[in-house]
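Lay summary. Proteins are chains of building blocks that fold into shapes, and those shapes determine what they do. In this project we predict the shape from the chain. Here is one chain we studied, written as its sequence of building blocks.
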Amino acid sequence: MAQPSPDSGLQSIPALLKRNATEFGSKAANREKEFGIWQSWTWKEAEYEIEQLALGLINMGVNEGDFIAIIGRNRPSLYWSMVATQMVGAIPVPLYQDAVAEEMKYVLGHCGARFIIAGDQEQVDKVIEIQDDLHQFEHMIYLDPRGMRKYDHSRLHEFSHVQEQGHAARDELTPEMIRRREKLTYDSTCVMLYTSGTTGKPKGVVLSNRNIIESAKSSSEFDDLREGDEVLAYLPMAWVGDFIFSIGQAYWTGFCVNCPESAETLRTDLREIGPTYYFAPPRVFEGLLTQVMIRMEDAGTLKRRMFHHFMDHAKKVGPSILDGKPVGAWDRFKYALGNVLVYGPLKDSLGFGRVRVGYTAGEAIGPEIFDFYRSLGINLKQLYGQTEASVFITVQPDGEVRADTVGVPAPGVELKIAESGEVFYRSPGAFEEYYKNPESTADTKDPEGWVATGDAGFIEPSSGHLRIIDRAKDVGKMADGSLFAPKYVENKLKFFPNVLEAVLFGAGKDRCVAFINIDLTAVGNWAERNNIAYASYQELAGHPQVLDTIQSHVEEVNASVAEDEMLSGCQIHRFLVLHKELDADDGEMTRTRKVRRRIVEEKFDDLISALYEGKAEQYTETEVTYEDGRKGSIKATLALRDAKVVPISAKVAAE
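And here is the predicted shape, written in a compact code that computers can read:
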């Protein structure tokens, strides 16, 4: 498809919509599975739905510059809502659907949203709970009418009714809609996305049409994304990655965005769609691999042996075949046979049979996990990005894909490393500002356009690849002056399927200690295979055999960390397995599952002190939030364990 450049008039998402509806209007733009059946909308049909909603919004009194909050799971109608919002000159602000009412209150109040578009009754109820504190809020539109019949509809409006009212007033309002749409430029705000807020209140990141379209254009060309590609939209709509993939790139290239029926049917829906372009954070790839290995443990002897035999071969030659490197004829034949017997069926069962380009980002992915997928022939790559960059800072070109780096600067991006080791970038995707926060904007983005990432890293002189060490604010010094980089060690621990999360402490101390969350799926399956009964996460987490297994993982990581001269002081001397999973509802993680390190440190201060005091066990009580919002507490006596470390002096002597 010939893609006109933005200077030919394609300076907004609504302008791209108009182009798509004209040039390939009969091709699928969106699909959604509902009641077990896939429904499709062409680009022409999507344009119609969006325009009727845009007319309805004008009819309701939406002004240019208004903020419209959008809350719910991935659905075509909510994606259309974002584009309709842009079409009338307003600014969409997607929120995390799993956020509790109190979290929503801050964002809705901060942006001053006059209008809210909510997916269903659950989201409507959250807004109603806090609406008295939202002084600028006027009207809410809901998508799913189930359960809404007896609500007070003085400020509530059904989505389809708003469209119908817009359609009824089309003759009167269409000229105004066209005027607003044509008024949009590259400098107009495209979307405002809130950061996850690991260290404080979330910040509203203002992204312009230039930011989104230039990032979508360059990344689509980099990976040769096409109008025939298929993606599955299942990640939070409030996350910048989903906005770029499901709006930016989709509208630039014209590919189809598919929305699953629910989180429970996601795996089935993934297999049915068979996306050609796929993104997932490392935890998704780790979870899928854990499930594969669990299934293999439960399989018959012959099937298990065949799987391991061909997977061993795939690990040796698969990545080389994928990268087009020379591989012997016999190895190629054996790999092709493995593809028929193992790799192909496995990819199909995972829903990855057609993936042409796959990405992971957000956290480091374990080399073994990364190599596993690439050995199957899946072109999985890493990227490094952030909300403020419209996602893309670095990418991995085909043939230069490595597990230990995040690649080279993305097209149009410049990189530099400050004396402190912090990574800075400058790009067309760099955000305009933090909304109502000029101080943070000035701290993050200088007058020349250089943006501070907050991450510490370095560029390899030989390859030009960027390597990220840790969050700059988390990199510190041990008591003896050696480097403390917690994320480096935590990621090594999380490479084990049994470990879901890890938090390392040690800045300013003479040794490091750690909290660990077990992966309930992986450890629970092990318990079932070994006839070990358990009634809760807490009971399984405290089982002596589980603690023995985690200790072996910790000691294996210590041996690996000891090999790194700079970071050998970060070995874990003592650890415990927490009695509860770290949870966003309890404030311990962000909605994107990043640990709020300072909050965890304050909340479990008694456990950290016990680890440093050398205690063998510690009683603790922890407040928790249940799904319905009620508060409760968990009481537990935790076992605190010592782990074997590699003496640094002995290591140096051996060298």
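What the prediction tells us: Residues 476-654 form a domain with the GMP Synthetase; Chain A, domain 3 fold (CATH 3.30.300.30).
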